[in-house]
Design brief:
Distance between the termini of chain B: 42 Å
Largest interface: A-B, 63 and 50 residues
Shape of chain B: elongated
Order of helices and strands of chain A: EEEHEEHHHEHEHEEHEEEHEHH
Helix content of chain B: 55-70%
Structural class of chain B: mainly alpha
Largest sheet of chain A: 6 strands, mixed
Strand content of chain A: 25-35%
Radius of gyration of chain B: 33 Å
Oligomer: heterodimer
Order of helices and strands of chain B: HHHEHEHEEHHHHHHHHHHH
Number of strands of chain A: 13
Shape of chain A: elongated
Number of helices of chain A: 10
């Protein structure tokens, strides 16, 4: 199923995917990315547009094609088909100094000292080693790791090593930060800290794009998301627009179980124990309320709930992908 | 986090990017404890070889006798020894050392055959009889070897051969075309052997060079930040630098060893390196070319090894690959070694053109031919071959290794989702 924002003003209309366009230039623009490995299409026609300064999430279960998509966007691998542009450049390595990347599988040289590891990651992006060391010491101090500056990576806890790597991703002050599953392996406190860091980056005008299989991170942080499943992107757009794909749900509890008022409920009403659940009618709630009152349904409670990103994901990507996403998320928490 | 955005700047050049990798690798390897073992590793066989050689030589000296025993009458024995001493200046090693067999001094009852059968004494053979009719007793080989010299000594002792030899005057030439070529082939062989040993000792390091990055998962950070060929190039040059450190250390130790134990080294190796004939291009140029060709051989083999090692999924796979890789090195060496002195033949030209054997073949040429322009041309070709191998290796690495995330390899799962 492909869902798009075709009807919204300012949206792309050249494919199944579109995001609201604003005045900001695009940090990332990808059209029709395809990548196959050993005859299997890992990514199958992905379109993504990320405006500068946005926090953007790539949401999907494990194996959906998130990492392959990010690798193509960063130039680690080339797409078999399609085009990608990062800050308008076809070859991301040409602007390597503007990009910071934290891969899913974290890696550091175990014998390196923290300050050297961060400076080295900066040097990979063109930051002189001396300046890198100065900034590394400053960053470690700012993140309460100053005492560990001269410790070897192998002497750190997993969480500390992850923080060091994240600081290495940021030491050269990139304009685009790409984080592949940045929350995996972090405890709740560090996840909160990371969310704050991502927001602070965006406040400074840095574009942040991250992949995740945990919906609530994307829901809390992202301005836009791409939902990816089976190598395809059935939806790319704002979180709000994704939630708007599903009408608000009405949850009604009545004293009476039978009566003529039942016919006034929408046809797709589901009964869930003592509750009736149905999408908010296009005509609004008022005509329905009138019918319920006149029919003496005996309203005990009535609530209108806006759809969450999870509901939107289910509707857009399908039940199978949603179940897989849920399982991955629970697996990660465990 | 309140870092501000960096201003727009161009990317790192290929050389800058390679330098970042090379600097990290060079320092990391040089200051690791393992490198110390790597440095002293090759010194062990040299020391053990030297020790074993000197012991072996000593044992051999004791065990292999070229003394011929004398079991004749006392005057005959004395005459034989005197004749032997007279002939030795002219005939050198052809004249055996003669010693009176103590057990035979008592009288005529001495049985030389029984004496040797009982494995007594340490004589190659024993001479009995008289000066007019000497008899050589010994194994067939020893009899064949010493019969003629004993006859000559006996004849000299009886005055049957001239007591004095006419003195031949001599005029010595430094060399001849034939001997110069023959001698330079020795130099070419020695140089090729040294080049082969160094590349074999040091080239293997490159094979497992990307294993650390793959094991630590840092490879993706490198691949995202820099072009993969810059990563390959940086790693190659770092290991080349490390190799030069190793060669400098081994060379210094070897030089010191030579300075304090030159005669022992000559005795053990049966080679006086001072006598190695000068190469056609002269020693300074030959040494310079040797350094350049070592670098090229290292970069060529290294780029191939780096690619092979990078394809390996684990350190165990890398170890498994080391055997065929050593065989490849041997084949390359044999291809070049087989054609020393056959300059211009199809096979020799093949070994010059084939990139992996080219440095070996060209170093041999430097020993045998004075022409220098061929070196310039071939060095350019070798440099191009290094670049092509690095480019090909990095492309293969990106294509075959940088596939997808760990979970992404679960095709079954992917298929299910796609459905």
């Amino acid at each position: 199923m492909a869902v798009s924002d075709h009807n919204r003003p300012g949206n792309h209309v050249d494919g199944a995917v579109a995001i609201p366009k604003d005045a900001r230039p695009l940090a990332i623009e990808a059209r029709g990315l395809v990548k196959s490995f050993d005859g299997t299409r890992a990514v199958d026609g992905v379109d993504i547009s990320v405006p500068e300064g946005a926090i953007y999430g790539i949401l999907g279960p494990n194996g959906a094609g998130k990492t392959t998509t990010l690798r193509m966007l960063l130039g680690i691998i080339d797409p078999d088909e399609g085009v990608r542009r990062v800050f308008g450049h076809d070859r991301p390595h040409d602007i390597g100094r503007l990009i910071g990347y934290l891969p899913e599988e974290r890696g550091l040289y175990p014998a390196m000292k923290c300050v050297e590891a961060i400076a080295f990651m900066g040097a990979l992006r063109g930051l002189p080693l001396k300046e890198g060391r100065r900034r590394a010491a400053e960053l470690l101090e700012r993140h309460d790791l100053g005492y560990a500056a001269d410790r070897q990576i192998r002497q750190l806890s997993k969480g500390m090593a992850q923080t060091v790597q994240l600081l290495g991703t940021l030491v050269h002050r990139p304009r685009l930060v790409v984080l592949d599953e940045p929350f995996s392996g972090l405890d709740a406190i560090n996840q909160g800290k990371l969310e704050l860091m991502i927001r602070a980056l965006a406040d400074d005008g840095v574009t942040v794009i991250f992949s995740t299989h945990v919906i609530h991170h994307a829901e809390r942080l992202c301005e836009g998301v791409a939902i990816i499943a089976g190598g395809k992107v059935p939806y790319a757009g704002s979180v709000e627009a994704a939630r708007d794909r599903i009408p608000a749900q009405v949850r009604l509890e009545t004293r009476s179980r039978e009566g003529a008022w039942l016919s006034s409920l929408p046809a797709d009403t589901r009964r869930n124990g003592d509750f009736f659940q149905f999408p908010l009618p296009a005509t609004g709630i008022e005509p329905l309320l009138k019918s319920l009152i006149e029919g003496e349904a005996g309203i005990l409670s009535l609530s209108i709930e806006r759809a969450g990103l999870h509901d939107a994901f289910v509707a857009i990507a399908g039940e199978a992908a949603a179940r897989q996403l849920q399982a991955d998320s629970e697996g990660a928490r465990a | 986090m309140t870092e501000t955005a960096a201003p727009l700047r161009p990317r790192l050049t290929l050389l800058e990017a390679a330098w970042v990798i090379a600097r990290r690798d060079f320092v990391a390897v040089l200051f690791s404890r393992a490198f110390l073992f790597f440095l002293i590793g090759p010194l062990f066989p040299v020391l053990i070889g030297g020790l074993a050689g000197s012991i072996g030589r000593s044992v051999s000296d004791q065990a292999i006798s070229i003394e011929v025993g004398l079991a004749m009458s006392a005057p005959d024995n004395a005459a034989m020894i005197a004749a032997g001493d007279a002939l030795r200046p002219q005939l050198g090693g052809f004249v055996p050392e003669l010693r009176v067999v103590d057990e035979a001094a008592g009288g005529s009852a001495f049985d030389a055959r029984a004496y040797l059968d009982e494995r007594r004494g340490n004589y190659a053979a024993i001479v009995t009889g008289t000066l007019a009719a000497p008899q050589v007793v010994g194994t067939q080989g020893q009899v064949d070897r010493w019969k003629g010299p004993v006859e000559l000594i006996a004849a000299t002792a009886t005055g049957a051969s001239p007591a004095a030899f006419p003195e031949a005057t001599s005029e010595v030439v430094a060399t001849s075309a034939a001997s110069e070529r023959t001698n330079r082939i020795r130099t070419a062989q020695a140089a090729q052997m040294v080049l082969f040993l160094l590349t074999m000792l040091l080239g293997g390091m490159v094979l497992s060079n990307l294993a650390e990055e793959k094991g630590n998962k840092i490879i993706e950070i490198l691949a995202a930040a820099l072009p993969m060929d810059a990563v390959f190039m940086g790693k190659l040059f770092a290991m080349l630098g490390v190799s030069f450190v190793g060669i400098a250390v081994w060379g210094t130790v070897g030089w010191g060893f030579w300075a304090i134990a030159e005669s022992a080294v000559v005795t053990v190796t049966q080679t006086n390196f001072r006598d190695l004939p000068g190469p056609a291009v002269g020693w300074p140029m030959f040494i310079a070319l040797g350094i350049v060709y070592f670098s090229m051989a290292y970069l060529l083999l290294g780029s191939l090894f780096l690619t092979i090692g990078a394809m390996a999924a684990s350190v165990r796979e890398v170890q498994t690959m080391s055997m065929p890789v050593t065989m490849l090195q041997l084949m390359v060496f044999f291809l070049s070694a087989a054609n020393i002195g056959q300059i211009g033949t199809t096979l020799e030209l093949t070994s010059v053109v084939f990139p992996l054997s080219s440095p070996f073949a060209m170093l041999a040429r430097a020993a045998l031919e004075e022409t220098l322009w061929t070196h310039a041309v071939v060095l350019v070709w070798q440099a191009v071959a290094v670049l092509l191998l690095v480019k090909g290796g990095s492309m293969l690495f990106r294509k075959r290794v940088m596939k997808s995330g760990g979970a992404g390899r679960d095709k079954a799962k992917k298929g299910r989702l796609a459905a």
